[in-house]
Amino acid sequence: MHKSFTNRLACFILLLTWSSGALAQQHAEQNHGHYVVPKDSLVRQKLAQWQDIKFGLLMHWGTYSTWGIVESWSLCPEDEGWCERHGPYSANWYEYKQAYENLQTTFNPVKFNPERWAAAAKDAGMKYVVFTTKHHDGFCMFDTKQTDYKITSSKTPFSSNPRSNVAKEIFGAFRNQNFMVGAYFSKPDWNTPSYWDPYFPPKDRNVSYAPKKYPERWQKFKDFTYNQIQELMTGYGKIDILWLDGGWVRPANTIDSTISWQRTIPYDQDIDMARIARMGRSHQPGLLVVDRTVTGEFENYVTPEQSIPDAYLPIPWESCMTMGDSWSYIPKENFKSSRKLVQTLVDIVAKNGNLLLNIAPGPDGEWHEEAYSRLQEIGAWLRVNGESIYGTKPVAPYRQKQWAFTGNGKATYQTYLPAEGETPPATITLAGVSPKTVVTLLGYSKPLKTRSTPEGLVVSLPESVRQSLASQPAWVFKRVDR
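Below the sequence we write its predicted structure tokens.
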């Protein structure tokens, strides 16, 4: 990395404000002004590879899908909308937690078929996957030896299924489709007594005792966390990304008092990320470590949630967003249109980011059928226009009104994001383009007729082209200077 870029980056500060409501359950805003370029050359190589593939799949899945509720957060004793409890046990937190954790005894996703997911994701143009091996509730979707609160426990009906180690099955199915593979892992664990100690009832999402006062107890939690991550790094094949959630579990010296949600962290919750990263990379060379919101050497790329930066961001980043309204399965989901999803991908790539799109499996182990249709529609667009996405770099001015700009070698891709129902015009003007530029439309084999004007290069669109564009979520013009 050039020193000039590092200097510019040190001065670059961007605050991302996340959406309100349930989306604010993690954090409110993030300061990305102090990104640290990885020193390890293998990590830098993998980071460059990851930045080229642009589009990934995230899956939140756990016992909470049985009730069709928010993932984990109803266990959290905070007076926030996303923590609300519902149902017959909601009046008493202790009874609710017991009933919630008892979902383990009925969880039986008999329609589990990760090959169908992997095939659909590949057809959609996705190229990496991040799966929730463990969310904050502590239920493990992998065969950990550290706890019996897991899908492979004899308490869980699905444990008798030969594919009960679902994380391993998912990673294998996607790896067979040449995906990069990422393990989502929650640093906080609301089931293990070394984090939420039964003697000290939890008041909020944080550890329920003072780690400094009870160092042996905290060391036990650190070892528990290390051992679980070591299992994932050694028994699940090639892992490319360790995606760590729960940013309140962090060293006290990383708390940024200018950020409101971080001011509420009451304790130093240092789990020794250096030790974890060193171990992970000893087994998985070049492993990308994403310690979300904990700015520094263990946040190899940043992860704005349910939001997109307003402008180009000169560091590696990824927007994690839901295809519907919820991270977890709900019986009736409100899926975004394929037009919206394609335009979101184009917007993100033009600003130097990746899109990690979440789909939530249900309690039977299947997605909503509508999710499959959305992926088919996205894939149809990318098969025609993917060269404007994969392996590209943002090109100034990046985003300008309804235009997005990317490039690869001598080619510049100028993508127009039409409004719903917008009719393609007979001509379209590309401002600031040389008269010698050859302009083509991706999906149309012939060069388009152009004429130079003071306003720019005017491109004529034949009637047949206009008709085909009318149903498309984005129109990609390829420019190559002669």
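Residues 215-234 form the longest helix (20 residues).
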